[in-house]
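Re-running the complex after MR caught last week's input typo. The corrected sequence lines follow. Everything else is unchanged.
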Amino acid sequence: MSTLAEHILPGREGRPGRGLPGDSRTGTDLPDAVRVTATRAAAAPTTPLWWQGALAAVAWGLLAALTHFWPNLPAGFTEWAYTAEFAAGAAAVAALLLVLVLAPERLAPLALLRRRLRPAGAWLVALALGLLAWEVLTAKLGRLPTPFFAPPQALVEVYATDSERLAESALNSLRLLAIGIGIGALVGFVTGVLIGWSRSASYWIHPVLRVLGPVPTTALLPVSFYFFPSSWSTAVFLIALGMAFPVAILTWSGVAGVHKNFYDVARTLGASQWFLVLRVAIPAALPQVFVGLFMGLGAAFSTLVVAEMLGVKSGLGWYLTWAQGWAAYPNMYAALILMALLFSGVITLLFAFRDRVLSWQKGTLKW
Amino acid sequence: MVNIATATRTAAHGFPAAANAGAGARIEVQGVSHWFAQRHAKDGAGGPLQVIDGLDLDIAPGEFVALLGPSGCGKSTLLRLVAGLEPASAGQLLQDGQPITDPDPARIVVFQDPTLFPWRTVWDNVALGLQARGLLKAQSQRVDEALALVGLQAFARALPHELSGGMAQRVALARALVNDPRLLVLDEPLGKLDSLTRLAMQTELVALWQRKGFSALLVTHDVEEALFMAQRVVVFSDRPARIREVLVNDLPYPRHRGDPRLVELRRQALALLGLGDSW
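Corrected-run output:
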């Protein structure tokens, strides 16, 4: 592998720090000629070379060069715009990686960024190779049918020319999602505590949850459009419903599963009913509540997208159907990527929130 | 039955606890019987299972009483009744002449499991009782005092899962003592500790009892523990619990584990529990 880097990057032998005794990989992976120089440079007190980073820089450089110098295959009616920009972007990534690889340890911000990126080295290489294959198979060789499989620069074009509409769609989706899951999480949590705590609440609410809960919220969509004044409020209701069901069920099981001794202890210490709910039942049930929140998010995402596709006149779901109507496949891919980033961002946020709230669990279980 | 007379007699012994006279509660158990509703009946009928049968027991203010009996005989149930966690099926329980109907911070239970709340730090666990009664803001120094009493000031910010078994049980003890209970109900509090920690904690508990002057009711199935710590050991029969014998141990504190009187009492207790042959 490293031989590729050897041929493309000239003058590597002169760089200090390569092949330190601590870095066993450089010793075994590299050809003999290099190893000789390694022993000579071993005295220099620097960190081992980030060879994956160097490789990634090479891969991104290769992507840039191929994109730029290999002419696109004429695709009938259209010439791919933004090919040069895509190549420039790849070259910029390659340059940045190269700078990071070469930066001395005393340039603190660069060294810090390098430490951060170090574990992602293999992914940076794979990403470049993946983009390279995509670029070659679409724009350069035209092996994949054109309107359905757009080359990467077509996505760049979408992000550059249609960013306003994409941003507005993303914001509308996020707003709808936030309102829906906010209401749903709250209602689900309160319902769960109620049926976990009160026998009569459990008697009346539990069967309703058991029967209606498993119905996919998207199945209720056509009906709900009639009951609500607008498709937007329908969507809020259904997202909230999809969120509330798993949260309620898991909150309930969490509250019901609190060990009786916790209540006994609190009661002998003089706790009121409110204290038992707020300070014993709810904190003890929180780990389960978060499982419910994660499950609910999945349902909320799919409800959101389907609602936007069928009724709500904005958002990423709407953008997808709109792009399909115009056979604008690059726009669909662009919207899908944006959606993936947004939704996984929401999940990451919830994880961070859980880690904060349940920090006491660290050390009691693996996560 | 036998025990009312004994109770008055032992209370007159004048143990060091008397220095704090008035701190301990007088507990009276009068003709208490208790049944459990049984879901899976073993003996055909499926009727309620009797666990306590016509029990009379008095605890004098500041007295240390241990309950000893075969496992499953209803000792722990009696503790729950005394704590007010459950109402007795028949008979009545009194604290200083007032009927016991609800749990009250004057009577605090320390369970076999420390049952610390895992999401609270040691300090917050100890503060639980004061917080529940709305006293925490005004009297938070009592939490530090209670932690000092069990020697765990340094672990105030630790989480329960970071503690050893003995330390966790000490925190549970501090959580009880911070409320200045008038009766400390101990439900096999040392049952899950290793034997060395156990011996150390027995001595510590006795020292705390002498210092604070509360009444103490200890359930255990460790004969030596009961005899080493308590002034009176009540030996129970099999279920339903009846009092078989009351052993009075008037040895002064601090006691020595090798004392011939303890050895003799131990022989008696084991014989009462049907293990006389091994002695």
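None of the earlier attempt is carried over here. Chain A has a mean pLDDT of 83. Chain A has 16 helices and no strands.
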